[in-house]
Structures are given as structure tokens and as C-alpha cells.
Amino acid sequence: MSKLQTTSGAGASTSERIRAIAGEPRPQWRQLIALQRLVGWRIVKNNKSILVCHILLWFYGLWGLLFAGLGCIGLHDDPQGHAAIIPGTLGFATLFLWLLAITFPLGDAQVQPRQTPTLPLSMRDYLVATLCGSIIQSRGILVIVWTVVFSACVLVALPTLSASVVVAVVLGAIGTILITIVGMCFIPLIFGADHSAQKDKLAKYSVVIFLVVILAANIMLRLENPQNWIMEFGRFIQWTPLAAPAGIIAHTLHGSLMGALLCLLITVATVAVLIWFIAVALRHQIAEPLVRETAKERQSTVDSTVINPRALLLPGLQWRPWSIVGSVGVRSFVKDSRTASLVWMLPILAIFLAYMAYSTDNYMMSVIYTCFFALILASQSANVFGLDGPGTGLYLSSGVSSRALLLGRAFPLYLLEIVAVVLMSVASVLLFIVTGHSDDSTWFWFWASMTFGLGAALSSIGIGFLLSTYNPFAMSKPGTSPWGDRSGFKAAALVSSLISVFTGWVPLIPGIVCIVVQYNVEVGLWLRILGYVLAILVPLAVHVLFLNLGAKKYEQSGAEIYQKVKNWISA
After folding, report:
1. Number of H helices, E strands in the chain
2. For residues 239 and 338, which has the higher predicted lDDT (pLDDT)?
3. Which of 29, 120, 253, 355 could disulfide-link 128, Cβ–Cβ 3.0 to 4.6 Å?
4. Mean pLDDT of the chain
């Protein structure tokens, strides 16, 4: 007799009959995973840029796996001498994937209790769904494939295999997968912190850390023997949670049982602690799904409402409409996580680009890098009304002239560009002088770097005036992480970025021609000075022209601009 016939008798309850027809309900955590996959699929479907990011992630991940596999060749000749390459490679890969979990939201974030406060789900349901859901997503699958293939390369490269080595490789692979995936689950919970001030700080820190890692990797790959540096890195990082699983393999190859056991202990403890922190964060969200404002944030709100308006002015500025707008813009520029990352990255990028120019032993590269640096920074002027969002309506009702408004909104970038160009030029010339690579043309290229860098900034900011008025688009609200800002996925954002970067150098062409001719033909000093002057005057003329055109467009279409930017987009 079938189960349906058995439960359809007179003694069967209604719930039993329904269960007999529909089958046993799926566990809650499985339903939560299904919800996560549905949400992720819809995000990718509605935003093709996310799909491109997934493809790029796999492309560069597999490309890195190829180089990592080739790095295992040295294990065949000297397993003990090259054992540190294993924790160095896996540790760097784990660190990189953890940073990607912060910096690139690919639509695969787990559903958190704060987003579903009305669903009758327990902490265990969320915990299991978070851990299991991460394994079957794009990044989780990449971690598994990357680790398994690299472990296979290690086994193939070793000249002889013993049972202890095989066990160590298996344990190392499992530990690496667990630490990487559990860490990628833990990090979004931290960066989804309760309070905006904490989120802003974490977002700024993530920008700096990610930039430092990328630049360090770039410098390492440019060295004569990068494998030695990776091994030195591995000898240090194998004692940290990032590469402790790989340390099990390295210590086993060295025959150090105590070292392998200690790395195993670090691995187990790290996984346990991360899971415990995830459980605590989930339990906290279930207990308090609504975000509460801290006392410090409440006091900050009170202070901002009673502040003296003249206290907003930067020192040395007079009480004028453009100076008021500019002063407020500077203060918000360094506080808003959408733009403050530029200030944090400024010294790091300047020093790195100066080093890149020095490493090529070519003075001209310092000028090129300075101009490129200036163009990238000035591209922030391409959507000033989008940054203000609903606040743009205040400009319409305040009576501030369009020229004063555009100049005031560009004032933070004027200051930033001056600091950036001077810092980049001085860093480049100091590197050449301190290392003994300077010659008679050093100061020639220094002034070229200064003038052409400032010229590139002027022309690019001028183009930004046009783009802000002719091509405005909505952005994410203030406080949004620069990595989670989806406004950059818009077609208007792509158009603005391309135009700002690739056309900002065009007004520099007359100055470039003068400098190149004088440097190669030795016509005379006057032509060099003319090149310096043209590098400033032509971009300045373009800057003033586009300022007037942008101001005229704002006077005619201010209401239309406001309609396009008045609503923040969801991050």
C-alpha cells in the first residue's frame, strides 16, 4: 500500500495529507540558499557588468594559476629549498581573494538577517546557508578549483611521494579552501557594519590595503628573481592564518613534525574563530535587525545643526558664494567614502608612479605618469551634481550663479591636483637625485612634469564642467563604499570616464610639440619656455571656455539636471 493511501484514511490529519502529497518540506537553510541564488541571478541579469566582472575574475584567476603551477617546477630539484613557494603562493592568493570579497561585490553576497527580519529563520539556518551558499557560488568554486589544481601541481612536481606528504597536501588543500571561503563569508559581515562612521573607515582602509597589495605585487613581479621574494614572503606568512594550511605542506617537506602540527593548530583555530564570529554577527542581527544610532553619531548630528555657517569657510577665504560651496565641497570630499579614497591613495600612488618612472630610467616617463595621474584625479569632476544628488535642488533655490557654483564644486579638485602634481614631480626628481641617476636634463623634465601635469588637470576639470551639465547621472548616497558604488556601471558613467581621461591631454599637444622639438633639435631655450607656457595657457583657455559653456547649460537646464540626479541609486 502506498504512503498516500496509508495517510488518506479517516485517522489522518490534514497536515499529514498535505505532507503526503507535497512531500517533506525542505530545510529552512536550503530555502535560504535558493533565495540567495535567485537574488544573485537577478542582479547579474539586470546588470551585465557583474557578469563581465565574473568572467574577468575567472580569467585572471586561471591566468594566475598557470604562473603558480609553473612556480612549482623548482620543487622537483630541491623540495626543501623551494618549499616556501607553497605558502607564499597560497597565502598571497588567499589574501587577494579576501580583499576581492571587500572590493568587488559581484552580486553573490549572502542574505543577512537584517534584510529578512520577518522570516522565521534561526541563527543556525543563516549560518549553514552562509557557509554552504559560498561554496557553490562563483568565487567559492574558483577557490576550490584553484587550490585543487595547485595541490596537484605540487604532487606532480615532487620527485618522490610519501604517505605523510600526500596527507599534508590534502590537509593543506582542505584547510586553504576552508579558511578562504569562511574568511570571504566573514568579511562582508564586518563591512556591513551597523554604523555609517565605521563603514566609512573600513571602506577607506580597504582601498589603501587593496592598493598596497596590488602595487606590491606589481613591484615584486618586476624584480629580477620574483620567486625568491615569494619564498621569503612564504617563510613569514606560513605562521599566519593566511598560509598556515600551506605551512603544513612546507614543514612536512622539511621533516618538521612540530612545525606541521603547529600550522595545523593555527588552521583549525582560525576556522573555528571565524565561524564563531560569523555566528555572533548573525545572532546580533537577528536580535537587533534595526540599526541604532550611536551617541557619538547623535552628538555629531546635533553639532552639525547648530554650527556657525561662517565656520564652514576654509581659512583665508572670503564670504562669497563660490567660496562657501568650495569650502563645503572640500570638507565633504575628505569625509565622503566615495571620494575620500582619492586622498588616501594620493601619496601611495605618487610614490609608486615615481618609482615606475625611475625603474625605466627614462625622465620622460615621469612626465607621462604625472599627466596620467592628473587626468585620473580630475575625472572626479565629471559628475559633480551626481555626487550632490538631492542637494542639487538647494542650488536651484539659493540663487547662486552657475559660474560660482561650478567653480566652487571644482575647488576641492583644484587643491588636490596641485598637491598631486607637486608631490609626483618632487618624488620623481628626488628618486633620480638620491640614487645618483640625475644629469643636466633632470630639472628640464621636472618643470615639464609640473607644467604639463597642471595643464592636464586644468583641461580635464574643464571637460568635467561640460560632462557634469550635459551628461549627469545619479550616484549612490554618501557613505557608500567606493567598491559597492553601482553608479559606475551606468553607460553615462562609462562615457564620462572615457571622455575625461582620453581627451584631457589633447590641449597639451602644442606644448608637447615645442618640448620635443627643443629637446631633439636644440633650437634654443626660448622654445622650451614657450612649451612650458603653452602647456598652461592652452588648457587654461579650454578650461575657461568649457566653464562658460557648462554654466550656460546649467542656467538653461538646471531643472532637468536635478531630475536626473535627485534620487540616490541603491548600492
Report:
1. 24, 0
2. 239
3. 29
4. 78
On whether the CB atoms of residues 408 and 326 are closer than 8 A, the answer is yes
Task: Look up the domain containing 237 and give its range.
Answer: 28-287
Q: Are 338 and 201 in contact (CB under 8 A)?
A: no
Beta carbons within 8 Å of 532's beta carbon, 6+ residues apart: 447, 448, 451, 511, 515
**Domain contains 431:** yes
| Residue spans of alpha helices (H) in 71-192 | 74-77, 85-103, 123-135, 138-157, 163-191
In this predicted structure, the answer to whether residue 503 has a pLDDT above a threshold of 60 is yes
- Cell 612540530 belongs to which residue? 258
Query: Could you give the CA distance from residue 309 to residue 291 in angstroms, rounded to a whole number?
Result: 30
Cell numbers for 389: 544628488
Q: Does 537 lie in the same domain as 458? A: yes
- Residue 370: other Cβ atoms inside 10 A: 32
Is position 199 within any domain? yes
**Domain end residue (candidates: 231, 265, 287):** 287
Higher pLDDT, 212 or 380: 380
362 vs 387: which has the higher pLDDT: 387
Which residues touch 502 (CB under 8 Å, ≥6 apart)? none
Could you tell me if residue 100 is inside a domain? yes
453 and 555 belong to one structural domain: yes
Angle of CA points 76, 82, 88, to nearest 5°: 125
**Alpha-carbon span 249 to 229, nearest angstrom:** 19
DSSP labels, 38-69: HHHHHHHHH-HHHHHHHHHHHHHHHHHHHHHH
CA distances from 385 to 87, 321, 326, 392, 558 (A): 48, 17, 14, 6, 10
Same domain, yes or no, for 351 and 471? Answer: yes
Residues 510, 513, 518: CA angle, nearest 5 degrees: 130
Q: Which helix (H) or strand (E) holds 413?
A: helix 402-434
Q: Is residue 8 part of a domain?
A: no
* Cα 98 from Cα 355, distance rounded (Å): 27
Residue that wins the pLDDT comparison between 270 and 352: 270
182 and 73, same domain (yes or no):
yes
What distances in angstroms separate CA 552 from CA 111, 445, 448, 557, 558, one per listed residue? Answer: 47, 38, 34, 9, 10
Handedness of CA 267, 269, 274, 275 (dihedral sign): positive
What is the distance between the alpha carbons of residues 241 and 175, in angstroms, rounded to a whole number?
10
Most confident of 233-237, 547-551, 563-567: 547-551
The 10 Å CB-count burial string (b at 16+, else e) for 170-207 is: ebbbebbbbbbbbbbbbbbbebbbbebeebbebbbebb
Cα–Cα distance between 164 and 166 in angstroms, integer? 6
Q: How many domains does the chain have?
A: 2
| Burial letters 518-538, b for 16+ CB under 10 A, else e | bbeeeeeeebbebbbebbbbb
